[in-house]
What does this fold into?
Amino acid sequence: MKLFKCYLLGLSLLSVMFLSCGDDEMITTINPDPMTEEQTYDNGVLIVNEGPFSGGSASLDFHDIGKDTLLRNVYSTVNDGQVIGSILQSVTVIGDNAYLVVNNSAKIEVVDAITMDYKNTITGVFGPRYIVALNNNEAVVSEWGLDGLSGQLKKINLSTMTVTDSVSVSGPEQMVISDDKIFVANSGGFGESNVVSVHGFDLVQEIEIPVGKRTIDMVQDINNDIWVLSGGSYTDGDGASLCQIKNNISENCMTLAGFPSDLIIDANGVNLYYVENGEIKTVNVNSPTISGVVLVPNITGTIYGLGYDGNHGALYIGTTPDFSSESTTHVVYENGDANISFTTGVLTNGYVSR
It folds into this structure.
């Protein structure tokens, strides 16, 4: 769960208006029926719906771009009503499988990435956040632990779906694999940390790189540099920043405000996007200054998730009115095609391009 974002949402449900060249277009929404049509999930965008913190389940939607349709609640529909669990933190495709990291339910659901058919469940993870592949047979998971303070990295054997190794890390969040090393954003969990730790594939920590406070998001750019977003102190946002890591050194740090979040990068590895003070800001990695604000039509509510579909050149933006209502996804195309919007599940927090 994006705990601090939920805290901000509770404080103030922002209404953000951007300039527009016209109204959004709508697309057809249907429920997939695997009994009558062989639906696949490899030409579009998986939509990650976190779900309510208690008393409900997460869900997956799918924007089928080839058919220009939105398929709702695809995991449960394909798997005979089976539910994902509580708080779908993230989804990552590795090889033939999609890994659904379910934070509150302390598990990772493994499904076929093409059909969404259930395959297995990985247990032994507690407060899991993200998963990244190390090689064809191994992955590493970041987790906060049961108390939010005893975070670890855990190595997973992808053949046996079991935990094989672990190491303590302070509230690990997103990870980037670069030069056969694991770069880990250390948020501190319910505490506070201000470093990126660098580990070998044996999970042994090698160095720490100081950045801003409460380090949460990371991406790698076209130059193989790593960009790190720090959300700032829980109390007042102090220490929020966007930093570049080049040759294991933090540089070009930009001070941010408004508890920034949701750092992503486009398919070319050149343009960064993140949310700050209710706006979507952009930075070109080859000229590291805040270069503008994305102009998106007809947005109301709080921005809760961002994603980029590199196959079709589109920015995906999830907004929510509150903790329990369905979200709205807005799609903005780089080529100038008409923007579209549609209703998605509760607390849409991310997108996976397929």
